[in-house]
Amino acid sequence: MKAQEALNLVDTLLCSNHFGQRLNDIQSAVFVESWLGCTYAEIAKQLSYEHDYIKQVGSLLW
C-alpha cells in the first residue's frame, strides 16, 4: 500500500467511525512522511517546524 492510499484509508475510517473528522494538514504530512520512513527530525526540517512539535503531532497519531 502506498502512503497516499494509507492516508485515504485512515481518513475514511475516521469519518465513518463517528469521529466526523479527518487528519489536518500537519497530521497528514507527518503520517505520510512517517509511512515513507522519515524520522521526526527529518520531517521537521522538511516542513520547517520544530522537532518537538512534530513529535507531539506524531504522538497523537499513534
Instruction: Tell the overall outline.
Output: globular
User: What is the end-to-end distance?
Assistant: 18 Å
Q: What order do the SSEs take from the amino end to the carboxyl end, as H and E? A: HHHH
Portion of residues within helices: over 70%
- Overall residue-averaged pLDDT value: 91
The counted number of beta strands is 0
Largest sheet: none
**What is the radius of gyration computed over CA atoms, rounded to a whole number of angstroms?**
12 Å
- Beta-strand fraction estimate: under 5%
User: Which residues sit in consecutive blocks of at least 5 with pLDDT less than 50?
Assistant: none
Note the total helix count. 4
**Class from secondary-structure proportions:** mainly alpha
Describe the structure.
With 62 residues, the protein is an all-alpha fold. The two termini are 18 Å apart. It has a domain at 25-62. It is built from four helices and no strands. The mean pLDDT is 91. It has helices at 3-16, 25-35, 40-47, 51-61. The protein is globular, with a radius of gyration of 12 Å.
In short:
The protein has four helices and no strands. By secondary structure, the chain is mainly α.
Question: Could you outline the blueprint of secondary structure elements for this entry?
Answer:
Elements: H1 3-16, H2 25-35, H3 40-47, H4 51-61
Helix pairs in contact: 1-2, 2-4, 3-4
Question: Key terms for this structure?
Answer:
71% helix, 62 residues, mainly alpha
